[in-house]
Amino acid sequence: MEEKIKLQIRNMKKHYKNGDGVENINMDVKEGEFLTMLGPSGCGKSTILRTIGGFLDIDDGDILIDGCSVKDLAPENRPTAMVFQSYNLWPHMTVYENLAFGLKIKKYSKEEISQSVKRGLELVNMQGFEKKYPGQLSGGQQQRVAIARALLLKPSVLLLDEPFSALDAKIRAQMREELKKIQEELKITVVFVTHDQEEAMALSHRIVVMNKGVIEQIGTPTEIYDHPASRFVASFIGEMNFLPDGGVKTLAVRPEDVIVTKGDVSGEKKGYVRTVMVLGHYVEVNVESDGQIIKTYVPKGAEEEFRPRDLVSMKFIKTYEYCA
Ligand SMILES: Nc1ncnc2c1ncn2[C@@H]1O[C@H](COP(=O)(O)OP(=O)(O)OP(=O)(O)O)[C@@H](O)[C@H]1O
To answer: Does the beta carbon of 195 sit less than 6 angstroms from any atom of ligand 1?
Structure first.
């Protein structure tokens, strides 16, 4: 299948007056792709999203949608719609009015507006809430309406800035699933921002990992997990043990890539069991070796086999190397 590029960011730079910001930003987002920008607080994710939406001017480079530069267009003239972290519904308008507002501006007929609002509310499972005011809705419901409102504008690219971060864990997981379903159904291009790696892994076709204003790696969740391109990505995504060798290199190994055997197996790294914790379907065994704790995961049942202070041997089945 021919893959069309929907959004391109080329050598983009945006610095605030204090010198903070992002630079060397290059990325392509394919049509129908769910792309997530992931990174710790302050790494520049929201800055990039705002430059795409037109809420921030860029210092250098270009932003193209469907091959056309949008960098000089005002937000309302860009084919994008943005949903923010905090619910940005108009409090004095009902749900219906909130959804209808943008369509009225676009000069839709009354009948078209009514049909669109109905469809929008169906998409986010909020039928029957037309007459409510935002203040009468829960956080999750308000965010559903905000997503519906953005979708009704039929944006070429939907921009979502940590839309679920104010919600509790259970609602958050539910909203994630709903968003994924909507994205697949509408095949809409989405750029999503989060600092939550689990959320990024669950939702995305590809993830852009950011650190301190630059992109560290772009790849599918599997690529990023299996082949972290830098020490930062290796430490930020999943669990990783770093074992400095005293030189310029650091060896790294994921807990699930360590095979732990009781006793002294020749040629393997030795250590002593410090703690054994049953974590549902697997067991975390922390082993002290050369003054360092190595976290390992072993299958359930192993808690019977390993006791604190036991001598064990460790075989690393997959390792990574980074600069120290
Ligand atoms: N209006 C501003 N003026 C000056 N500096 C800013 C401004 N907005 C953001 N910054 C700084 O730019 C950097 C990137 O901020 P940005 O909000 O893009 O990060 P983020 O990754 O989205 O973080 P968070 O997850 O906390 O929102 C940070 O160091 C931040 O302090």
So the answer is: yes
Instruction: List, in order, residues 6 or more apart from 122 with CB less than 8 Å away.
Output: none
Q: Which atom of ligand 1 is nearest to the CA of 37?
A: 21
CATH topology of domain 240-323: OB fold (Dihydrolipoamide Acetyltransferase, E2P) (2.40.50)
Domain(s) of CATH 2.40.50.140: residues in the chain? 240-323
Q: Mean pLDDT, to the nearest integer, of 166-179? A: 86
Question: Is the CB of 163 inside a 6 Å radius of any atom of ligand 1?
Answer: no
- List Cβ neighbours of 63 (8 Å cut-off, separation of 6 or more): 7, 8, 9, 10, 12, 51, 52, 69, 70, 71
203 close to 34: Cβ distance less than 8 angstroms: yes
Which residue intervals of the chain bear CATH 3.40.50.300?
5-233
The pLDDT tens digits for 79-93 are 999 998 877 899 999
Q: What is the pTM of this model?
A: 0.90
Contact 297, 283 (CB under 8 A): yes
235 vs 171, residue with greater confidence: 235
* CA gap 173, 196 in Å, rounded: 12
SS3 171: helix
Q: What single string gives the DSSP state of each residue in 272-316?
A: EEEEEEEETTEEEEEEEETTEEEEEEEETTGGGT--TT-EEEEEE
Distance 45 CA to ligand 1 centre (A): 8
Closest Cα to atom 25 of ligand 1: 41
Lowest-confidence segment of 84-93, 126-135, 285-294 by average pLDDT: 84-93
